[in-house]
Design brief:
Layout lengths: L17 E8 L3 E9 L4 E5 L2 E3 L6 H13 L1 E2 L2 E8 L10 E11 L12 E6 H9 L6 H17 L1
Parallel strand pairs: 1-7
Antiparallel strand pairs: 1-2, 1-4, 2-3, 2-8, 5-7, 6-7
Length: about 160
């Protein structure tokens, strides 16, 4: 604690910095990914994203993760902010982006432990899904709220 008090035991999960993006195709459709999450025993819809590799910037990481997970490259990235999922237990931050102008350029290049299904939805449908609590990953729903705010400001 700041005053020197020792809390014993106290556990911190140490994780690398991460990134996620609300990713829009050149047709303004949202790319979501469906994948199984063992801790909650469910397959859920999420934003593409992942960990920042050592020596990599967050913006480089999100471009890489988007291409690996979806096969899309994007023409523009808007930085939306940085959040901490659970700073009482986790020591990492997640960088949030809006990616626009996505074009399919490759097939997925997944890690050995990833099974990711790409799902593409109209923008208006994703906003409804978000408001109906169908996007349950907290950092991803936060990114989407910021992303929709940015998109509303670009009009």
């Amino acid at each position: 604690m700041p005053d020197g008090t020792i809390v014993d035991p106290y556990f911190v999960v140490e994780m690398p910095e991460s990134v996620c993006a609300m990713a829009l195709t050149e047709n303004n459709e949202v790319i979501l990914v469906k994948q199984y999450r063992h801790p909650i025993d469910k397959s859920i819809l999420e934003l593409p994203g992942g960990f920042v590799d050592k020596g990599e910037t967050a913006e480089t990481a999100i471009a890489r993760e988007l291409q690996e997970e979806t096969g899309y490259q994007f023409s523009k990235f808007y930085y939306l902010g940085r959040t901490a999922a659970n700073p009482g237990v986790l020591n990492n931050f997640t960088n949030l982006y809006l990616a626009t102008g996505g074009k399919k350029v490759a097939v997925q290049k997944l890690d050995f432990n990833e099974e990711i299904e790409i799902k593409i939805f109209p923008l208006v449908e994703v906003r409804i899904m978000l408001m109906n609590n169908e996007i349950i990953q907290a950092m991803h729903s936060t990114c989407m709220f910021y992303g929709f705010g940015k998109l509303d400001g670009l009009k």
